[in-house]
Amino acid sequence: MGDITGFLKIKRKEAGNRPVVERIYDFSEVEQILNSEDRILQAARCMDCGVPFCHWNCAVDNLIPEWNDLLFRGDWKAAYRRLSATNNFPEFTGRICPAPCEHSCVLNIQLESVTIRENEVAIVEKAFSEGYIKPIPPTNRTGKKIAVIGSGPSGMAAADLLNRAGHEVTLFEKEAKAGGLLRYGVPDFKLSKAVIDRRLDLMVKEGVSIRTNMNIGTDISVQNIVNQYDAICIAIGSAMPRDLMIEGRALNGIHFALDFLVAQNKINGGESVDTALPLNAKEKRVVVIGGGDTGSDCVGTAIRQKASGVTQIEILPKPPMVRTPDNPWPFYAKVMKTTTSHEEGCERIWSVSTARFTGAEGNVTGVEIEDVEWQMTEPGCSMNIIPDTRRIIEADLVLLALGFVHPVSDGLVDELCVELDVQKNIKTEKGHATSIPKVFAAGDAVSGASLVVRAIASGRRAAIEIDRFLRLPSDDGSG
User: Fold this and answer.
1) Which domain holds residue 411?
2) C-alpha distance from residue 273 to each of 143, 216, 295 (Å)
3) Mean pLDDT throughout 57-79?
């Protein structure tokens, strides 16, 4: 490393966020940008640790110490080349990845990890601004045609690598614009859609064909796709939301979190939304059920829509502020997480179960909850209701942010008759191959809902296997 004692002399310094009083009035990105000089100093904190646990905990196998060292030396161009060798879209992961790499950074033993995620996005943004990133279409084409169905991070990654390999790639998206849940599920205040458009424009200039408003299995038959293409990659994500089937579920005003987020993202993008489903939190008492990132995104969106109040409830206990002995470094730290949305004004309640929804005249008026306690048992833990703790949180809008259970099967999956696993995810063998010849699958459609960085990694692996499959000699020996 350039300065093996940098971590002893330089403290961790984050870019910080726009002031709360400013950012709650718009959907612009919250995170700010650190100046280049300070960013180089932060890269100097990457120590010569011998065993880079950050690399071990990175789904795309980023060569983190290497590009941190190049950044420290001021060689931004070489740093980007090293970064892009393993990650197609560092501008995405550098903004919205929860950075498991930082949790396993050796310096995190003292809670002062290297600012890996921020360094990553700084490198790629410098590359765009300085013109290092230019369209580089493949010099030779193989003549093989590939359909990638789903334009989220996994599908984009697969399409990008397969196009670079010289194949003719068509990326299908059922919505009006490509990007999948990066565009429609992630709020603009976390990821500006101009960042997605910039990358998609680059991919198109390099030869990827993008077809939107194409729901395979509805707008075009699956058999049509199978007949036209030499290989197919299914990357449709895991969009079937987990429901909460309790008393009062049929009341008006109870919606899935993703429907709420998609509606606002479409409005921000100038798209029309279903007026029969006016999902807006203005002057409403909002209750978000689910304590994860999707729930947090609902909180920030509801605040910007001028909700009268926002409460987020979670069935699990409140996490500790620091690691517990059973959650040691270098594993991901299961500690209290306060997002920028939480900072903007939200009541958070832990260890509560939702008993029923209350209503009047067909509309939801409240969420009845009760306290629970968790006890360690073999092989895991058990939950018990605490008697006489029922009470009602008043609500005009309830958002279910309970995660996702498996891919949507209507249309493509059902028509293709692809084999599923016990969780109803698409079952694949080694090499991302499905039960259907020449059909592969990648991302959340295979693994279940996970991180963007893992979706990118899966798309990359699938692309390598599809390329290998297409280059195998044909049965007739013609090659």
Assistant:
1) 145-239+405-470
2) 40, 21, 21
3) 96
